[in-house]
Amino acid sequence: MDHAAHAHRPEKRRADQEHERHGHPGHGQQPGSAAHPHAGHASHGQASHGQADHGHAPGTSWRTAVQATLHCLTGCAVGEILGMVVGTAAGLHNAATVVLSVTLAFVFGYAFTMRGVVRAGVPVRQALRIALAADTVSIAVMELIDNTVMVGVPGAMEAGLTDPLFWTSLAGSLALAFVLTTPVNRWMIGRGKGHAVVHAHH
Fold it and tell me: What pLDDT is recorded for position 57?
């Protein structure tokens, strides 16, 4: 036996042990094994982080909510204004004017949504179901707010069509309805409801 080689082996083992104590791989060891105790933690952290990102649903932006509310407000405003104008011009009772305004607001609100969905090639009956799912809550909230304002402002419902009080009250009621309905639409879209069902058809 070669005595020089035999004497070299203990030194080699001591060198390998020294490398292991300092976190360096010995001969034949792979990175990420016992010589690399932190490698497993890094991989585990990366996997956990990836799972967390995968499971986190992105929030709905305010811009999306504003656009949805503006779309809904357009149809609502047309019906609301038309109902108020007709009711005031015809001298209807306040309750009758409100009922007419709410009815027309729903009709025009649904019609505006259906128009865009039908243009995308959706059948009319299916488009109506989409509009009902997309706009019912939004229109209901808007109508509750703006009609409450109109009835609550002294003299607004009794004012004639040439009276600035009628138009400023109506404009203010619609503006307030827009501001308060936007968070509602954001909440609904973030959960796949409301105008989220319309986005799939644009």
Answer: 40
pLDDT tens for 86-111 read 999 999 999 999 999 999 999 999 99
Q: Which residue has 């009835």 as its token pair?
A: 151
**Rounded to two decimals, what is the model's pTM?**
0.66
Report, in this order, helix, strand and coil percent for the chain, each rounded to 5.
75, 0, 25
Q: Measuring CA to CA, which residue among 116, 115, 146, 114 is closest to residue 133?
A: 114
Task: Give the range among 51-65, 141-155, 165-179 with minimum mean pLDDT.
Answer: 51-65
pLDDT in tens, 26-75: 444 444 444 444 444 444 444 444 433 333 344 578 988 898 899 889 99
Residue 172 contacts residue 195 (beta carbons within 8 Å): no
Decide if 122 contacts 130 (C-beta within 8 A). Answer: yes
Indicate the SS3 state at residue 149: helix
CA–CA dist 111, 127 (Å, integer) = 10
- How far apart CA 104 and CA 127 sit, in angstroms, is 19
Which residue is it, tokens 């956990």?
A: 48
Task: Report CA-CA distances (Å) from 121 to 107, 116, 117.
Answer: 21, 9, 7
Q: Which of 139, 130, 112, 121 is nearest to 199 (CA)?
A: 130
Give the Å distances, CA to CA, from 198 to 23, 66, 68, 115, 132.
Answer: 58, 15, 10, 11, 10
